[in-house]
Amino acid sequence: MSRIAVEVVPEVLETSAEIGNGKDLNPVLDDVRNALAAVADALLDGEAAVELAAEASFAGIACVDSARLLVSDGPDWRYANGQTDLPLDLAGALNEARKSSEVSAFPCIGILVPVSPGAVAVLPPSATVPPARWPALQILAAGVRLALASAAQSRGKLDALEEIRGLQDIAIRILSAGDLSDILFAISQETKRLLRADICGVFLRDGDEMVMRDCIGNLTRNIAKIRLLRGQGLAGRVFQTGRHSIVGDYLTSDAVSQEYAELVRAERIRSALGAPLTVDGDLIGVLEVWRRRKSTFTEADVRRLLTLSTLTSIAIHNAKLFESQKNALEQLTQVNERLRQQNDIIQQSAAINGEVIQGLVDGGGLSAIARVVARYAGAEVAFLNAEFEPLGDLSLPPWCAASMQRIISAIQEGADAQGGGTRTVQVDSHWLAIRAAIAGRDRIGWLCARSSKPPDELHEIAIGQAAMAVALHHAEQRAAAHARTHTIDGVAWDLLEGREQARAAAAAGARQLQIDLSGPLRVLHLVCVERSAGNERMSTVEVESRRGFARQIAERVLDRLHVLRLVSARGNLIVAVVVASEC
User: Fold this and answer.
1) Are 289 and 191 in contact (CB under 8 A)?
2) Handedness of CA 510, 516, 521, 526 (dihedral sign)
3) How far apart are the C-alpha atoms of 218 and 225, rounded to whole Å?
4) Nearest Cα to 25, choosing from 122, 144, 131, 136?
């Protein structure tokens, strides 16, 4: 409980020894009445104004130049106007005088007038204030006591309103569920204001440490970076015990460890109060305030901080939930966007594939494939066979011929790569995308696309679909050639060995196959030997391979002589129908 006393400076203005005898009583009563009225008028302006009015009123009643009002907090005393240094003998006398409720005189100190229970006021030495005026001082002291109590009640109501406003502001922050950093900053500001602290900080738990996440009012940057283990400092003590904790004098207290004493000195910290932040019974942080003056945190202060810590816990929990929901929404948005992009890619891939297949069905061949790639990928296309020559009946574009060495080098550098991936090289201001066309296990050639910008995903899809179409085209051509070969074989043997009706049908089939059998013709017979160079018998695979190779050699030689009309093979026998006049 605070104590109040009055000290009057010993400079006498007037004295009257006659008051006690009943003479001139009305002026004294008037002085008391006026003094009480001044104190009452000061109520509207709060405790500080009442204290100033009380000092002036005591000086007026005592007929001295000035009086001093003193306030105590336990054994310590301070001047009401903010001065803190008191003579040691005066503090001792005040503590002794507070035991009495009567006005009393102390040699060399003055008259002590109690203002509130257990408190005293100091007036000049007793010789300057006649005892006859002491009752007037007591009456005034009673009035001042009532005025200060009323002012304290008013201040309590104002403090309660301020507290409610502060809690309301914090509650609005909680309901808005904004950014966690903004919430912590607002909570620190309101907590510092409501508890009349110099510094306020919010610690959040990070594993086995309490980490400062927000701090205002600090003088150094170090306090804003502090990390505390269990038992370290006040926050560490709260972390360890899970209960609020108070320190009256930080550097002399045995309740907290002193690892950060230098930081405490740098911040000029004297007292501190910390409260736990809990969510569903789990400790998530600590809310702490520091004062740079020696002070005692009251039960009201503890109640306010505990209330604020509860709201802070809710705010942090809501902010984290909000952040989790925000992150989940962002992830869902990203997933939806990726799915949309993939769906677009699938649709584009299907469109490219459809156009390529339709081009092949319509008989457009490689030219149709090149047009599709040019439209979707914005690129010029060239087709090369396995020997890096133009594929099919297409010609080699000038840009492809000029870049051939770079194309071959890129293919050779990636020779060990598995699969049909696209290789990209930059040539001057253009990019070349090179992809193998693979049919079964055979690499039949290469597709080269030249573009003015780096290949993107659509570019890759178009080239991949084109390479697949080239493989399909090749397979189609090979199947057609194989079917033609079988048909030609049938025609040839029917012409050579069939009866008259079969030969007539074979001649008609030859005309359908556009095989010219007009004019004099001759039949050549070639026989394959089934022996190896060492006179060893060859395997069936080797025999078939040699038969096929022999047929190819015979067909190629006779075709270059421009005499070949028909060729066929059966077992080791190869027959060729040629123009008779040229052989």
Assistant:
1) yes
2) negative
3) 11
4) 136
Which domains, ranges and CATH numbers included, belong to the chain? 2-155 (no CATH), 177-323 (3.30.450.40), 363-480 (3.30.450.30), 516-582 (no CATH)
Backbone angles phi, psi at 422, to 5 degrees: -95, 135
558 burial level (CB within 10 Å; 0-12, 13-18, 19+): buried
pLDDT in tens, 300-323: 889 889 988 888 888 888 888 888
- DSSP at 297: -
- Global pTM value: 0.47
Closest to 120 in 3D by CA, of 145, 157, 152 = 145
Q: pLDDT tens-digit profile of 454-504? A: 887 777 777 777 777 777 777 666 666 666 667 777 777 777 777 777 777
Handedness of CA 449, 453, 455, 456 (dihedral sign): negative
Q: For 362, phi and psi rounded to 5 degrees?
A: -75, 0
User: What string of DSSP letters covers 14-58?
Assistant: ---TTGGGTTTHHHHHHHHHHHHHHHHHGGGG-HHHHHHHHHHHH
Kind and range of the H or E element at 550? helix 540-560
